[in-house]
User: What shape does this take?
Amino acid sequence: MANRYSHGGDEHIFVEVDEAMSLDAFFKSIAITNAVREAKIDGVTEICPANASFQIKFDPDRIKPDDMLAELKQLEAAADKAESTMKTRIVEMPVYYKDPWTHETLMRFRERHQDPNGTDLEYAARINGYATVDDFIAAHSGAPWFVSMVGFVAGLPFLYQTVGRDKQIQVPKYVRPRTDTPKQTVGYGGCFSCVYSVRGAGGYQMFGITPMPIYDPTQQQPHLRDFLVFFSPGDLVKFAPIDRETYDGILGEVEARRWMPRVAELTFSLDAFNADHDAYNAKMLEALYAN
Amino acid sequence: MPIKVVSQGLVTTIQDLGRPGYYHLGIPISGAMDRYAMRCANMLVGNDEGAAGLEAVFIGPELEFTEDAVVAVTGADMAPRIDGEIREPWSSFQVKAGQRLSFDYLKGGARAYIAVSGGIDVPIMLGSRSTYVIGSLGGVDGKPIAPGDALPIGQGAGKAGRSVPERLRRVPGNPAELRVIPGLYWHRIVEESQRSFFEDTWKVAPECDRMGYRFREGSALEFVQREQPFGAGSDPSNITDACYPYGSIQVPGGTEPIILHRDAVSGGGYFMLGTVISADMDLIGQMQPHTPTHFVQVDMDTALQARHDRQAMLAQVREALS
Assistant: This one.
């Protein structure tokens, strides 16, 4: 896997680690962007890891585009030798699947969908070979997910599930994007889940909604007091299905500003994961639910 | 003492030179779309070039001053008036307590920049006062200004009667020309489309805002055939979701190019064929819908020279106003 480099005008360098998504490509993107951050190269203004690529923005008055390119190529060589482990955290995100709000929204935009006669969940379950929607939800909420990119809009995580390629869920985006998506909708497009941090336009399939705020510009939520965006690339997330009653309960706590997500620290090892996916996922969940 | 907003025009936002450093979290740089005009307006009223002012698109606001101030308006051609009396654009002028600033209809360009001596003193969020509406950041409660708002003004020491020389006032041509370095996923389209993209006359679509400018009327682009990589999505214009450079040109479905601007979505799943050079980004902020546009292919040396020329022009303004 050799990186492909391209100038993005005179202020950016765009680096594609791989055309296809994989945990290997994601790990390499994180390793190099971490190395760029540590190298403290004069003139670098933004370091943006993405799923299987990354982008560096710099001030060409301080470092010439070709010099920046040479620096990055050097760091690629160093990252290739880096250990494939990552110190991170795993977060439980409660999700109310089949909720009335995303249901109302998906019905409103039905003519923009591949399957106008069903729901987004029914469609996703069917094309991924699941007998029932509940089986599909069990798969979506089973193994944890890596936050593989944060962006599109403020604080929105893209998530990639820690399962083998044969078990990856894949769903196309809407035929034509919606002009509305409820805040905190759990969505799906391509091989990525996402959580809409704010209300707005969107093209991902809608599976449910979380009562957990992930972006708070007022910084009043206890878990967002330190910074207004909750997720960073490299975080792990476990979706936990909840019913209406639990949803309302958590929402009440959130409104009273005393809700906190369940979080545990861990070190993710790509080699150990690749040796046995199921066993490694079970170990991560053990760490999450240890206390 | 604040400025009272009587009417907001179409959409008027508080902007400075932006909020770098958070793009990896989906928070774009924001700030004035035409930074050159914003810097000039600030210099005219004796502010730091990065002070916060107002960006008014297509239609100017009406503002009532509650104390004496020095004001300058640059950028789009919409003549400022004080209590109905016309004032020179690209020049600083005195406004007395109780007087109102209003604007004529737009005659050219798209965005006017209004600087007030002392700058608009709303709270700084993540290092900037710029309004980013989607993320509810900056400005007045993260929103465009609205009637009834009181805009706090800092301490200033501007002088009336200063002017940016006419040769240093920057406006886009018609047809507009935007210089582009091909790259990113340029290889995804066939040679004929690589040619037509630069040969065709495009037109700015009505969907043009701080997030991005959309273009129409050029030929649809044809893609090099391939089996779509895992995770990229089924349309040939799709890629595995990636970060988008400012100024990058994405073409969803191969039909209508979109140039991302200061309030860019930071990433997504559409291929990009290249990037507008930094020296031409300000010009986009002054383009009206339906403006015929040519994309001009340039290399890195040209881009860096253009950047240098633009800085030299700004240095001349600094000198003229010092």
Q: What stands out?
A: DSSP finds four helices and 20 strands in chain B. Chain B touches chain A through 52 residues (CB under 8 Å). Chain B has two domains: 3-168, 176-311. The first strand of chain B starts at residue 3 and ends at 7.
